[in-house]
C-alpha cells in the first residue's frame, strides 16, 4: 500500500472515530453545539411528520381515487338501472281506471254537482291529417321521429328539481308524456320519474312511433273537459279530427301547454298573447323541419275557436263555482308540488276529488234574486239593443274568514262561459280611490305644501286642474270631473263622497304612484307590471269583483290581508289537500285601514251611494261603508261596499253580445247613463240587507272620517270658491247622517235627470213601490 493510500485510510478511520460535532473547541462547547444540532434534527423530524400527514390525505384523495369512485358509482347506477329495466314491465294502460267523478258540495255538505263523464273518443292516427299530426311534434318534441323516447337531460333536471324541492320544469318527450298519461300518473316522485324513464325506453323500443303519437294525442287533456283530439276538434271547432286544418291543429297542439289558460273563450289578455305566440312557434317549427311551405305559412291566420258547448249539470251559477274551484285548486297544486299548469289540470279533472265550497245556499239565493229584481227584470233586449250587452258580476266575502259565501258569474254558465265575477278586463274606476287614500295614510304622505294627508286635508277640486309634481312642474295630466263640475277647495272626505277625480289625481302624485301600486298589491290587486303613471289614479287598470271584494275585505279586516277563496275543503282518496289560510298578515296598519273605512261611510251617508243604500228602507240603521265607480265611456259601473261582517263587490260590464268586445252602457234600461250608484248599488243593497245578520257597528281605531266626524259638503259650481272653509265642522257627531233625508220621499220623481252634480238628497221611487225599479240620477257618480 502506498503512502497516499495509507493517508486516505487514516483519514477514513479518523472520520469514523471523530465525535458527532463539527467544532474543534472545548468539550462543553461541543456539547452545546451537539444539543443545537439535535434540536434541529428534531424540528426536521416534526416537519417531516407534518409533510407525511399531508401526503397521507393526498394519498387518500388522489384524482385517480376520485375518478375511480365516480366511475364505481356510475357502474353501480348502470347496474341498478339494468336491474330496474329487467324488473319493470310495461303495465296495462290505466288512464280509464283512474277516471272518477269529482263531487262538489255546498258549505252545509249538500251535494251541488257531480262532474265526471269523460268526453273522449279514440280515433286512429290515419284519421288525423298528416300535417295536423306534425303540429303536435313541432310543438312538443321536434326529434320525436329519431330519438330513443327519452330526454336524458330533461330526466336529470326533473330528478334534481324533485330532490331539491323545485318541482318539474318540463323537458319530457312525446313518448314520456304518453307514458305518464296512459300508464302512470301525475305524481312528482323520484320513483315515478324512474318508472317513466324505463317504461318510455321500452315503449319506444317495442312500439312504432305512429302508435305512440296516436296514444299521445288521444290521451292528452285539451281543456273544456275534452280528452283526445277528436273531442277537442268537436269542442273547439265543431268538426271531426279528420277535418282539422293545419292552423286549427296548431292551436290544439299549443293548448296542451296550459289548456285552461289558453282557451280563447276564457283567456285573459295575457293568455291570448301567450297562446298566439305558441301557435306561431308551432307553425314556424314546421317550416324549419321542412313540413310546411313558408309561403303557405305566411298566409295563415289565427283560427279563433268556437264558443264552448253547454255542459250538462253546469247550468246556472254551478259552472262558475266549479270553474273557480278548479282554478284555485290547480293554482295551489302548481305552487305546492311544483308541477306545470297542464299537469295540475290533469290532476284535478275527473280525478275523484270531493270539493266542499264556501258558498252559502241562503246568501247565494238572495244574490241571484237581487240581480234579477234590480237589474235583469228591467232589461228589454227586444226593445233596446244595448240591453243585450249588459253583464253583471258579483262576489261576496266574509272578511273574518276570507270565504266566498256567494258569487254571481253571469246569467248562465252554459250561455256565458266567462265568469263576470272573476274577469279582469274591465276598469274598477273610482272604486280604486280608497286604495290611493290608504297608500297616503300608510306612508304618512304630505301635500305639496307639506301638510299631512288625511280625511280633513284640503285639496283643489277644480275640474281639469293640471296635476303638479313635488317640484311644481305639470305632469301633463288634468282629469275632468264628472260633467266637468268644479268643486273648488274641498276636504278629502268630500272628495271621496263626490268622487272628485282632480283631487285623487293630485293625491296619487303627492303619495307617489309607485307607493300607490305597492299598496294596491298588498291589499290584493294584481298590479302586474303596471308602470307608476298618474292615469291609474282613475282606476284604469283591470280588476275583477273578486279582487275588489278582497281589497275591501282587507280594509274591513283592519288591514290584515284577505284572499277570497271558494274552497272550504278538497279531498282525494280520503286525504285532505291543505289549502292556504285565506287570512294573511297585516299588510297595512289598522289605523290606516280603519280611517279609510271611516271615510267610506261618508260615501253612503252623504255621497254617490246615498239614495241607493243609505235611504234604502231595508237598511234598518246598519253601518255601511263603500264606494261607487263608473269607467270611461260608461263601459263598466261598480259598487263595492261592506258592513262589519260582509263585503260584496258588484260590477256591471258592457259586453257586445256578438263579438264579446267591450261596449258602452249608455241608454241601458232606457237611462241616459249607468253609474255605480244605480244598478250596482241597488243590487248590493237588495242582497246585503236581505241576508243581514245582527246589526253591529264598525270597531274603528281612528279619529278621522265621516264615521267619527260630520262632513262639510260644498255645492259644486263652475266657479271655484274663493273663500273655502279651512276648518271642517266641529259639531258633535250623531248616529244619524249629517244630512238627514226626508222621511217622506217624493211620490213623483222627475223623469228628466238633473244635469247638476249630485248632492245625494233626491229620493228614490224604488223605496216606496212594491215593484222593484231602478230610476236614478245618471250624474250620481264618476
From TrEMBL:
Residue ranges annotated for the Penicillin-binding protein transpeptidase domain, each copy included: 396-645
Chain residue ranges for the region called Disordered: 1-36, 608-637, 708-782
Residue ranges annotated for the Glycosyl transferase family domain, each copy included: 110-286
UniProt catalytic activity: [GlcNAc-(1->4)-Mur2Ac(oyl-L-Ala-gamma-D-Glu-L-Lys-D-Ala-D-Ala)](n)-di-trans,octa-cis-undecaprenyl diphosphate + beta-D-GlcNAc-(1->4)-Mur2Ac(oyl-L-Ala-gamma-D-Glu-L-Lys-D-Ala-D-Ala)-di-trans,octa-cis-undecaprenyl diphosphate = [GlcNAc-(1->4)-Mur2Ac(oyl-L-Ala-gamma-D-Glu-L-Lys-D-Ala-D-Ala)](n+1)-di-trans,octa-cis-undecaprenyl diphosphate + di-trans,octa-cis-undecaprenyl diphosphate + H(+); Preferential cleavage: (Ac)2-L-Lys-D-Ala-|-D-Ala. Also transpeptidation of peptidyl-alanyl moieties that are N-acyl substituents of D-alanine
Membrane-crossing residue ranges in chain numbering: 66-88
Biased composition (Low complexity): 719-765
InterPro entries (alphabetical): Beta-lactam/transpept-like, Glyco_trans_51, Glycosyltr_51/Transpeptidase, Lysozyme-like_dom_sf, PBP_transglycosylase, PCN-bd_Tpept
Keyword tags: Carboxypeptidase, Glycosyltransferase, Hydrolase, Membrane, Multifunctional enzyme, Protease, Transferase, Transmembrane, Transmembrane helix
Pfam families cross-referenced by the UniProt entry: Transgly, Transpeptidase
Residue ranges with Polar residues bias: 766-782
Family annotation (PANTHER family): BINDING PROTEIN TRANSPEPTIDASE, PUTATIVE-RELATED, PENICILLIN-BINDING PROTEIN 1A
Name of the protein described by the UniProt record: Penicillin-binding protein
Amino acid at each position: 500500500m502506498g503512502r497516499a493510500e495509507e493517508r486516505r485510510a487514516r483519514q477514513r478511520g479518523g472520520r469514523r472515530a471523530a465525535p458527532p460535532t463539527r467544532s474543534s473547541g472545548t468539550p462543553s462547547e461541543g456539547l452545546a453545539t451537539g444539543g443545537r444540532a439535535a434540536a434541529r434534527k428534531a424540528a426536521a423530524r416534526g416537519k417531516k411528520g407534518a409533510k407525511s400527514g399531508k401526503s397521507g390525505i393526498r394519498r387518500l384523495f388522489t384524482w385517480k381515487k376520485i375518478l375511480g369512485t365516480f366511475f364505481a358509482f356510475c357502474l353501480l347506477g348502470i347496474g341498478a338501472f339494468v336491474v330496474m329495466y329487467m324488473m319493470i314491465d310495461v303495465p296495462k294502460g290505466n288512464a280509464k281506471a283512474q277516471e272518477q267523478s269529482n263531487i262538489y258540495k255546498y258549505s252545509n255538505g249538500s251535494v251541488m254537482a257531480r262532474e265526471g263523464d269523460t268526453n273522449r273518443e279514440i280515433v286512429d292516427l290515419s284519421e288525423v291529417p298528416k300535417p295536423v299530426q306534425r303540429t303536435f311534434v313541432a310543438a312538443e318534441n321536434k326529434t320525436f321521429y329519431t330519438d330513443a323516447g327519452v330526454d336524458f337531460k330533461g330526466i336529470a333536471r326533473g330528478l334534481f328539481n324533485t330532490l331539491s324541492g323545485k318541482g318539474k320544469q318540463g323537458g319530457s318527450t312525446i313518448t314520456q308524456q304518453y307514458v305518464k298519461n296512459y300508464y302512470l300518473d301525475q305524481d312528482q316522485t323520484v320513483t315515478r320519474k324512474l318508472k317513466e324513464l324505463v317504461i318510455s325506453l321500452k315503449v319506444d323500443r317495442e312500439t312504432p312511433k305512429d302508435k305512440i303519437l296516436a296514444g299521445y294525442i288521444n290521451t292528452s287533456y285539451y281543456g273544456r273537459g275534452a280528452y283526445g283530439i277528436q273531442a277537442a276538434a268537436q269542442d273547439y271547432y265543431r268538426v271531426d279530427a279528420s277535418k282539422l286544418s293545419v292552423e286549427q291543429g296548431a292551436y290544439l297542439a299549443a293548448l296542451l301547454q296550459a289548456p285552461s289558460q289558453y282557451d280563447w273563450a276564457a283567456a285573459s289578455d295575457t293568455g291570448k298573447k301567450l297562446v298566439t305566440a305558441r301557435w306561431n312557434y308551432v307553425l314556424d317549427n314546421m317550416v324549419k323541419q321542412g313540413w310546411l311551405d313558408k309561403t303557405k305559412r305566411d298566409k295563415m291566420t289565427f283560427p279563433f275557436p268556437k264558443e264552448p258547448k253547454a255542459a250538462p249539470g253546469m247550468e246556472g251559477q254551478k259552472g262558475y263555482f266549479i270553474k273557480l274551484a278548479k282554478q284555485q285548486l290547480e293554482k295551489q297544486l302548481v305552487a305546492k308540488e311544483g308541477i306545470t299548469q297542464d299537469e295540475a289540470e290533469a290532476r284535478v279533472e275527473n280525478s275523484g276529488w270531493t270539493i266542499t265550497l264556501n258558498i252559502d245556499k241562503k246568501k247565494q239565493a238572495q244574490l241571484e234574486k237581487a240581480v234579477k229584481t234590480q237589474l235583469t227584470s228591467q232589461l228589454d233586449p227586444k226593445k233596446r239593443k244595448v240591453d243585450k250587452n249588459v253583464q253583471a258580476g258579483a262576489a261576496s266575502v266574509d272578511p273574518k274568514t276570507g270565504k266566498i259565501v256567494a258569487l254571481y258569474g253571469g246569467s248562465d254558465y252554459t250561455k256565458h262561459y266567462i265568469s263576470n265575477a272573476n274577469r279582469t278586463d274591465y276598469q274598477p274606476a273610482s272604486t280604486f280611490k280608497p286604495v290611493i287614500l290608504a297608500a297616503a295614510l300608510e306612508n304618512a304622505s304630505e301635500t305639496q305644501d307639506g301638510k299631512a294627508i288625511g280625511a280633513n286635508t284640503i285639496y283643489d277640486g277644480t275640474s281639469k286642474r293640471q296635476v303638479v309634481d313635488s317640484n311644481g312642474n305639470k305632469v301633463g295630466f288634468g282629469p275632468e270631473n264628472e260633467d266637468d263640475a268644479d268643486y273648488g277647495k274641498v276636504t278629502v272626505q268630500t272628495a271621496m263622497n263626490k268622487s272628485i277625480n282632480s283631487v285623487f289625481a293630485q293625491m296619487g302624485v303627492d303619495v307617489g304612484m309607485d307607493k300607490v301600486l305597492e299598496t294596491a298589491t298588498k291589499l290584493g290587486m294584481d298590479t302586474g307590471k303596471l308602470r307608476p303613471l298618474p292615469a291609474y289614479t282613475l282606476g284604469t287598470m283591470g280588476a275583477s269583483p273578486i279582487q275588489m271584494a278582497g281589497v275591501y275585505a282587507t280594509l274591513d279586516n283592519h288591514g290584515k290581508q284577505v284572499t277570497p277563496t271558494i274552497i272550504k275543503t278538497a279531498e282525494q282518496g280520503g286525504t285532505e289537500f291543505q289549502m292556504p289560510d285565506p287570512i294573511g298578515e297585516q299588510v297595512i296598519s289598522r289605523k290606516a285601514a280603519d280611517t279609510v273605512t271611516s271615510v267610506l261611510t261618508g260615501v253612503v251617508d252623504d255621497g254617490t251611494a246615498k239614495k241607493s243604500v243609505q235611504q234604502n228602507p231595508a237598511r234598518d240603521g246598519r253601518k255601511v261603508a263603500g264606494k261607487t265607480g263608473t269607467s270611461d265611456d260608461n263601459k263598466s259601473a261598480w259598487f263595492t261596499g261592506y258592513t262589519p261582517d260582509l263585503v260584496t263587490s258588484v260590477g256591471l260590464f258592457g259586453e257586445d253580445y256578438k263579438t264579446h268586445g267591450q261596449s258602452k252602457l249608455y241608454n241601458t234600461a232606457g237611462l241616459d247613463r249607468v253609474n255605480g250608484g244605480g244598478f250596482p248599488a241597488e243590487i248590493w243593497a237588495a242582497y246585503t240587507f236581505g241576508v243581514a245578520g245582527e246589526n253591529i257597528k264598525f270597531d274603528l281605531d281612528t279619529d278621522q272620517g265621516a264615521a267619527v266626524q260630520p262632513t262639510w259638503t260644498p255645492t259644486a259650481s263652475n266657479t271655484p270658491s274663493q273663500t273655502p272653509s279651512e276648518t271642517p265642522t266641529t259639531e258633535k257627531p250623531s248616529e244619524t247622517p249629517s244630512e238627514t233625508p226626508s222621511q217622506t220621499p217624493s211620490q213623483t220623481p222627475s223623469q228628466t235627470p238633473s244635469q247638476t252634480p249630485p248632492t245625494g238628497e233626491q229620493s228614490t221611487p224604488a223605496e216606496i213601490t212594491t215593484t222593484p225599479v231602478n230610476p236614478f240620477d245618471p250624474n250620481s257618480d264618476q
